[in-house]
């Protein structure tokens, strides 16, 4: 039995690693533009005039808009997908779009918008299919491990993309080479996925069935209690989902707003150089890697998804308030550290919303659909933030951007308090 369990663990670990690898390279193919936004602003022209922050942010909005819509569509349809081929198509489609951007002429900026629209939809195939694969093939005892591990591709993908961009900038290599690197990595992992997934997944499922047969049996009463609990969860599920959808929009509005515009904030607000600004932005994802671990620790202590998110939004509001109070001082290091910690908090919220919540949903709920919908709402926030914050920075300056981020965090914290008070009142009744 212990030998069988050891084999099951080995195959489960391989499956988690393969899923994490697919999402890691997907993030490089998604952030290849954002990591180079300063260079894009200086290189591309429209009618021989340089593009500003608002137009540069429009490309990110294109990706996030089709990503968000695609998440809903693919979340609904993923139950019918053969994930071996759906993820292969998503990765290869993203690779092709990255290659097209690398080849886009200097005076054809709007073509990038078209390519990034398609890239957004190709990328939207991935998350719900990955969650479906993990939920379907992994034993229950390893689901929380999968949730934690799946937080790392986001952080490592962001870090790697900005690191490559910073290195190329320092070496004088054209930023378009980043898109070529992304394209190659996406194709390599897509091939690994299509060749190895089925074998690993089949072994996982076979060993899961053997485990279930070996330790089958709950008492009738325990089973009844479990069914009652499931029913209760489903009754309150829709209401909870709506609140978490709002949290999701706010999460990526803050997270991607900071990640996208941090190089420009350091460059324009604090007069730092272009390559240094991009290099310093690397510290955002570097610290974010701890977000998921902190979120799970808070969740285990508070025993609630809403309370966990509310705590992280509250801490973020305090950190952004510190930036607002010190904004007129030439202390870029304080701004960077505060936003690093905010990024870490938002990484934790993102992990709770897009992985922990879907995987821990009642069994009669489609986990892939929940993951797709929540992730879709996340990227609705991303779609808003890249263009909106770029426009605000041009018309009102970066100080106004900081006030907007503070307001969003504070509002989410207040919503958490209202929801918690309402739930406790219901229990007392």
Give your account of this protein's structure.
The chain is an all-alpha fold and 429 residues long. Helices cover 84% and strands 1% of the residues. It is built from 17 helices and two strands. It has helices at 2-31, 37-43, 53-77, 83-102, 109-124, 126-137, 143-149, 152-171, 176-214, 220-269, 274-281, 283-288, 291-302, 305-325, 332-359, 367-395, 398-428; strands at residues 45-46, 49-50. It has a two-stranded antiparallel ribbon. Helix 1 packs parallel to helix 4. The longest helix has 50 residues, at 220-269. The N and C termini lie far apart (48 Å). Mean pLDDT is 82; it is low at 215-232.
What's the arrangement of secondary structure elements?
Blueprint lengths: L1 H30 L5 H7 L1 E2 L2 E2 L2 H25 L5 H20 L6 H16 L1 H12 L5 H7 L2 H20 L4 H39 L5 H50 L4 H8 L1 H6 L2 H12 L2 H21 L6 H28 L7 H29 L2 H31 L1
Antiparallel strand pairs: 1-2
Count of alpha and pi helical runs: 17
Instruction: List the quaternary state of the chains.
Output: single chain
Helix content: over 70%
Overall pLDDT, averaged? 82
User: Largest sheet, described in full?
Assistant: 2 strands, antiparallel
Low-confidence stretches: 215-232
Q: What spatial order of strands do you see in the largest sheet?
A: 1-2
The helix/strand class is mainly alpha
Q: What is the succession of H and E elements? A: HHEEHHHHHHHHHHHHHHH
> Rg to the nearest angstrom?
22 Å
Our estimate of the beta-strand percent is under 5%
Terminal Cα separation, in Å? 48 Å
How many DSSP-defined strands? 2
Judging from the principal axes of the Cα atoms, what is the shape? globular
């Amino acid at each position: 039995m212990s030998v069988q369990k050891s084999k099951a663990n080995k195959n489960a670990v391989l499956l988690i690693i393969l899923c994490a690898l697919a999402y890691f390279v997907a993030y490089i193919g998604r952030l290849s533009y954002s990591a180079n936004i300063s260079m894009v602003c200086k290189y591309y022209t429209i009618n021989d005039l340089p593009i500003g922050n608002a137009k540069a942010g429009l490309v990110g909005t294109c990706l996030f808009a089709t990503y968000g819509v695609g998440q809903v569509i693919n979340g609904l349809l993923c139950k019918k997908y053969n994930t071996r081929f759906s993820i292969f198509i998503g990765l290869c489609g993203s690779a092709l779009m990255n290659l097209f951007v690398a080849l886009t002429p200097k005076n054809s900026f709007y073509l990038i918008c078209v390519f990034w629209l398609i890239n957004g939809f190709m990328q939207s195939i991935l998350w719900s299919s990955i969650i479906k694969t993990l939920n379907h093939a992994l034993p229950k005892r390893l689901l929380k491990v999968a949730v934690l591990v799946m937080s790392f591709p986001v952080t490592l993908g962001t870090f790697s993309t900005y690191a490559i961009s910073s290195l190329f900038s320092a070496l004088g290599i054209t930023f378009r080479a980043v898109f070529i690197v992304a394209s190659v990595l996406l194709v390599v992992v897509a091939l690994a996925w299509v060749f190895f997934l089925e074998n690993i997944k089949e072994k996982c499922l076979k060993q899961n069935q053997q485990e279930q047969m070996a330790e089958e049996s709950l008492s009738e009463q325990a089973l009844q209690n479990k069914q009652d609990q499931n029913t209760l969860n489903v009754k309150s599920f829709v209401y909870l989902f709506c609140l978490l959808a709002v949290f999701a929009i706010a999460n990526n509005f803050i997270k991607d707003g900071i990640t996208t515009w941090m190089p420009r904030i350091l460059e324009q607000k604090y007069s730092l150089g272009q390559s240094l600004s991009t290099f310093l932005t690397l510290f955002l994802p570097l610290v974010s890697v701890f977000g998921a671990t902190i979120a799970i620790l808070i969740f285990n202590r508070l025993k609630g998804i809403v309370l966990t998110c509310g705590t992280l939004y509250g801490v973020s509001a305090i950190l952004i308030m510190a930036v607002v109070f010190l904004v007129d001082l030439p202390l870029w290091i304080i701004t960077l550290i505060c936003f690093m910690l905010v990024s870490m908090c938002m990484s934790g919220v993102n992990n709770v919303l897009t992985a922990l919540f879907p995987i821990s949903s009642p069994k009669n709920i489609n986990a892939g659909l929940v993951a797709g919908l929540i992730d879709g709402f996340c990227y609705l926030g991303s779609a808003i933030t890249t263009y909106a914050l770029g426009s605000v920075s041009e018309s009102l300056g970066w100080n106004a951007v900081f006030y907007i981020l503070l307001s969003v965090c504070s509002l989410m914290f207040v919503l958490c308090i209202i929801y918690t008070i309402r739930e406790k009142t219901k229990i007392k009744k």
